[in-house]
Write a structure and sequence with these properties.
alpha/beta
Amino acid sequence: MASIEQGRRFPPRVFVERAEEVLDAFGALKGVYKHVGREKGLASWFRQWAELEEQAISLYTFENRVVPGLLQTEAYARGLFSVRLPLLADPEIEAMIAARLERQSLFAERPNTAFSFIVEEHVLRRETGGGAVMRQQIDHFLEVTAPRNLEFQVMPMNRGAHACLDGPIRLAESPENEWFAYCEAQRGGRFAVDPKTISVLHMRFAKLRSQALTPDDSRSLLEQMRGAL
């Protein structure tokens, strides 16, 4: 509880509900709960999710736009931030890159967390930052996805309609086995705790796993793409 009180750990919903009841806070704590976050260099709407990432025992991600932030190299991230509109000042770009790379320490710090990533093939074929950057990015994929607790799958372009055409999905399971979801769009993101919403997203992600290439086949495709660059 001390970690929560001192801001080092994101409070689970059950903690907030109990504190609300004990303190008779008239909904104030539940209201603040929607806006918790403190990371510099992260978009305000993403901070609450970043807190959850640090504690998650399961973390699932589907991306159809760019390489997921947790898997980006510094060069790839720089390529994205350098073309963002409105244009960012150099200090802003550096702060965002530093925050993104700091999040990646999760892989070393949480070896028991189950990570699952599914990425559209066209994302990997788009030469964001140039061919050399993408070669480095694919090398990074092959290295970082080697541990047993990290599963990486590619959704092939020759697959027609699939279960997640509505957009990216992130799902996280807390140490208290409570599930949260986050879906990002232009200029904002939607943080979800509603069980019905999360159930739908779980259903879609589970279906997507069966529609994507297997982890072994995905790794083979990455090796082929690396050789072609």
